[in-house]
Structures are given as structure tokens and as C-alpha cells.
Amino acid sequence: MAVFTEVTPSQADSLMQSLNLGTLTELRGIEGGIENTNYFATTDQGEYVLTLFERLTQEQLPFYLYLMKHLAGQGIPVPDPAANRDGDILHTVSGKPAAVVSKLAGKSQLQPQAVHSAAVGDMLARMHLAGADYNRSQPNLRALPWWNETVPVVLPYLDEAQAALLRSELAFQNHTANTAAYAALPRGPVHADLFRDNVMFDGEQLTGFFDFYFAGVDTWLFDLAVCLNDWCIDLPTGVHHNERAQAMLKAYNQVRPLSGAERELLPALLRAGALRFWISRLWDYHLPREASMLKPHDPTHFERVLRGRIQHPVSASALI
Ligand SMILES: Nc1ncnc2c1ncn2[C@@H]1O[C@H](COP(=O)(O)OP(=O)(O)O)[C@@H](O)[C@H]1O
Ligand SMILES: N[C@@H](CCOP(=O)(O)O)C(=O)O
Fold it and tell me: Which residues contact 248 (CB under 8 A, 6 or more apart)?
């Protein structure tokens, strides 16, 4: 249940009116989600999502919300934050930072076929190009510096073989980040968490990307690797699915052809994507935050994915 802070219909109605979105006709708490309070808010003008941010601060939020606004303005199907008369898109409800965004049509496709991974690859490349001229900057807060900080914190919870893998993979990623090929990777705003549950589909038609609250500036290849590691991995085995991966990479490459450095570093960044989510899942699992709202995901899944990425590296030339 993802209503951590109650909002009354009258509070929601006055917010919707101040955003010029009409008169509230229905307010319904959204059950999914683990981070924020979310409501579907319907007015006589349309359907919206009201989010109260439970952990992110007034300082962090503008990067995410203005990125969504920028992408929506470029025709990328993402929730578009509504502005008030003064142009503000970050509001306050019940003492919490809040936003109202457009509601995406469709639902998550949790058992994707090649056609779905192709649609994600195509739209991901379009989103990267559309974000290239976004003028705010915030690093990916879950990138290499965070991995270096967090690995020593989670190591005591692992057995010897797991600890050896985690240490050696971190060393490999620190080394990779210092190579000329890595420095040559194109960068820009990335979603960084575009798993199956953060994309909407209506049948085979992709209707939107959402949940931008891990976004940041990072390499475009890292974003693609995160997608390949979720959309093109079988659950629960953690085994690479070649047909879906080919479909995703081909579709991405048709919109934005991969550079030589990106082709070279795809295997390393697939490992980076697996490492990132192994670390965060270990962290959430073993060190739940105070009054945690998180239902921890299984960390061993990304340990399996990482081992697979090391033992059976997938090269770009095998896919495109
Ligand atoms: N803009 C949107 N349009 C349609 N549905 C949305 C939108 N934003 C959130 N949702 C719905 O709310 C659920 C929870 O949102 P999510 O961003 O995943 O929450 P959390 O950040 O708490 O994990 C999603 O699974 C989706 O069903
Ligand atoms: N996708 C991550 C967890 C992030 O959760 P989200 O609900 O905010 O997408 C994982 O699977 O570990």
C-alpha cells in the first residue's frame, strides 16, 4: 500500500485548481510503489498522478521534475509535471514536497517479448537524444562513488565467495572507469532504473517511461546496460535472453548508432549494471532504513546476473 501520507479530497482539489487542472472528481490511493505516496487524481479535465515525496528533498527534486518536463516537451512519453501560475512544478502538500503529473495510459509488461524490448530500446535512444540539451545537472547518485562507499558496508553480510566476487568486480569497475574508452563514452541524463515495472505498454505499444527518481547524468551505455539486464534476462534464472537483447540493441542502434567505445565497453557496462543493483539490493536487504517502507528485492538475483555477465560476456557484435 503506497499511501504513507493521507491527502484529503479538499487538499487535492485546491492543488488541482491552483494548477488550472479543473475540479477534483475522484481521489484514489495507488497500491503499487514502495518509495512515495501516490494517488490517482481525476478532475473534470483529465487524469493525473499526485505524488508526495517521502524521502527525496526539495533540493534533489527539481533535477528529476524538470527533466521529465523537458523530455515531455520533446515528445518523449513521460509524465509531465503540472505548473502553477508562477511556473512552479514542485509543490507542498501536508508538509511534504509534492508534484502532479499526467497519468500514462497502459500497464507494465512483466513478461516481455522481443517486440517489447525493441520498443524500449527505440524509445531509450530517443530519450537520450532528447535529453542531450537538458540544462540542469546532477550526477547519478548510485554510481561508482556510491559503490565504493557501500561495498565495505555490505561485505560483512556475505560469505567468502560472494565477498571475493564483490571486491574483484568493484576493482574491475574502478579500473574500467579510468580507461580512455570509458572517458570517450557519450553521456547525458539517464533514467538509470528502467526496469519492466517502470515502463507502460498498451499491448505492443509503449505508452511511457516513469519513475525518474534515480535519474542522473551518466553514460548512455550504462542506461542501456540496466535495461538489457532486466528486460533481456530470464526470471528467475538470471540467464541472458539473446533474442530480446538483439531486438533491444538493434532498435537502439537504429536511432542512435553505438560508438566504437560503446561497442568495446558493452560487456564491462553489463557487469556494472548488475553490480549496481546487487549492491543496492544488498544494502536495502541487510541495512533497512529506519521506518523503512522498502520491501527488499532479492539480492541474489543480481549476483547471478553478474556471474553470468562475467562467465558469458555478450559482445555488441554478437547482437548487432
Ligand atoms: N504517471 C503515471 N501514470 C500512470 N501510472 C502511474 C504513474 N506514476 C505512477 N503510476 C502508478 O503508480 C505505481 C507506483 O509508482 P512508482 O513510481 O513505482 O512508486 P514508487 O516510487 O513509490 O516505487 C506504478 O506502478 C504505476 O502503476
Ligand atoms: N529497480 C530496482 C529497485 C528500485 O525500485 P523502484 O520501485 O523505484 O523502481 C531493483 O529492482 O532493485
Answer: 117, 118, 120, 121, 224, 227, 228, 231, 232
